[in-house]
Amino acid sequence: MSVDLGLSPDQESIAELFNGFFSNEAPPAVARAAEPLGFDRELWNKVIELGAPGMGCAVENGGGGASLGDLVVVAETVGRSIAPIPLIDHLAALSVLTESDLVAGEAIAAVAVRPADANGIWSLVPAGAVADVVIGVDGDETVVVRSTPPMSGPLNHGSMPLADRSAREGTRTVLGPASLFEVVLDRWKLLTAAALVGIAEAAKELGVAYVKDREQFGVPVGSFQAVQHGLADLPVAIDGGRLLTHKAAWALDNVTDGLIDWANNEITDGPTLATMAFLFAADGAVMATDRSLHYHGGYGFAEEYDIQMYYRRARGWSLILGDSTSVGLSLADRLFGTVEG
Amino acid sequence: MDFALSSDVVEFRDEIRSIIREFVTPEIADRMHTTGVFDAPELNLELGRRGILERACPGLGKGDPIEMYVMFNELEKAGAPYDGLAVALMIAAVVNKLGTDEQKERIIPSIISGEALVCMGYSEADFGSDLASIKTRAVKDGDEWVINGSKMWTTLAQVAEWLILLTRTDLDLPKHKGLTMFMLPMNTPGITVEPVHTLGTEITNATWYDDVRVGDEAVLGDENGGWRTMTTVLAFERGVMGGTNAGVPLLRHFHEWAVANGVFNEPTTRERMARSIIDMQVATLLTMRSAWIAASGGMPGLEGSMTKVFAVEAYQRASRWTQATAGPAGLLQFHEEGAAGEGFVEYDARHSPVMSIYGGTTEINRNNIAERHLGLPKSR
Ligand SMILES: Cc1cc2nc3c(=O)[nH]c(=O)nc-3n(C[C@H](O)[C@H](O)[C@H](O)COP(=O)(O)OP(=O)(O)OC[C@H]3O[C@@H](n4cnc5c(N)ncnc54)[C@H](O)[C@@H]3O)c2cc1C
Hints:
The complex is a heterodimer of chains A (341) and B (380). Helix content of chain A is 52%, strand content 11%.
């Protein structure tokens, strides 16, 4: 135990493997072709060959036994490539599900990030359009439902495979009390945070490459200080988001009875850190895509350019959990206790 | 990644915390605002007496950058006056690295005992960001150097024993090359100090140098090698000596007030507070990263710029919303009845603007990030 803020050699290999895989198999054209549904079955099948769907599961259940830190590295590569596969949702659901077809990735799992309504409907489940299994909260229970995915859903900003799913129709298993779901949701927030860091990173790279290349007034637009300063904030937000996400993963993996001593800035409670990372990475991805799009000038607004795809997903992937005020207030409850009365 | 401090460092941190509990009393925190000197001699002496300053000084004791980060982060979170200590330790490290044996013997013990402070004379009235253009002259006269000119913002000059002074020694060389750094006692004849009062109660100084005579023993580093000495100073600072978590005590003070006045249940306030707490975590993680890079043998210059840009603006955001939320109580100063956060809310709104100015402005840091991290062409 001592401070080490670099990736482990294993994680370096994981990053290299997945970045390589996604840049070969899922360049932005693949995400574009998969719109509006936002799912590419062929790509999912290739990811199965990498063993990615069951990576985080215990070895005795046929999984890869990867740590959350490892999964964070993978999730960032998913965001960076905006690959049209529900790997984040699947990895999060598998924090408690162990069925062999899920571990193998033959069946896809989704996380109903908001509880079911009075009629037992989980609305707008991310990956709900394509998942065979959905895990979520219905009343005071955590339930898992297996049913046929609709393979379509409402057209949406992030071109995400969203759909309403029933918590009661299909093969329903009660896993335990609603509190059991917290582990799943924490992991979903954590991995989504990492994916959002990846989106910000990609947006930064697109923006920087563009302004180095594009010339106006006889010089690259990237030599104008106003443009430089707008872009200079991006690596800061990215590095900050990455560190916070890794700290959350580290805490969820290693810390029991973590601290929530905000008054001394000592926070080692995993679930608290996961929500913090989610909020911070969401803001960072929004800012990075805003600025990168803007510094493309009119071309940033053209459908033909890729930055608009990142712009929409930066908002879609975070907003699906709920408005940021509600998420911020849920964090406040963890930090300060709930408001009485 | 591993975010846990080693058991050695935890022990070190606990020692720092116990010293803080004993020596950073409300009176000491209060005194900095009445004297305008951000320093606590009794704290420095205690750290010196326990060997902590020697231990922390790079190149001297253990010199572990992680410990350095922990020490200043603890002091900053506690609201301790630590500016004097930070400068002194940083310069002790520079003397240890670039000084002659004679200079080391003469200067370092006075600093690591916690007795002597150092002030820094780099900026001038006409040159701040463009530091390499400074005009204060040092001219060789036989065995001696004769220094003439003036400096602006020579903070701590009214209390420091030592002065580190950037001068121009060769007018013919390019601007970065004709500079020489001196380190001399403040009581050398010919130095005049005049206070400059600031918005943030800190009293800095304008300093004048009229035929100040020193020998070669005062040259720190090489003649005409002043810029390299300057770079060494910055390299030791590394962004791990405080200045990145100033919002933490502010949030604590604000929270106490808001709870006591029954206004903490407002959702807007709770959300803003939660977001500032995220900022403070990120700021400390970025600082810790610089320390870790330095501990691994790297030079976190660029990371220091990144940390500073973020941390400073996070603190400024916090000071803005806490004051706005406090309403009229956010206008009241220390010791006034009903002042929000015992006056800290008002104080931080006055103090936070300086953080994006001194020690390299936010614009200079963004230039640095754009050029060195993003690889964009030099603007200017
Ligand atoms: C309270 C206080 C204490 C200080 N203590 C010390 C000390 O102990 N020793 C010491 O030597 N100095 C000290 N300083 C000086 C400090 O380091 C300088 O103020 C700082 O470097 C900025 O220089 P300047 O004030 O001359 O501003 P200028 O350099 O004149 O800058 C004015 C504005 O122009 C912007 N600007 C300048 N150049 C560029 C550029 N290339 N691109 C974009 N924008 C640019 C700046 O960001 C700034 O906003 C202190 C300052 C203060 C306020």
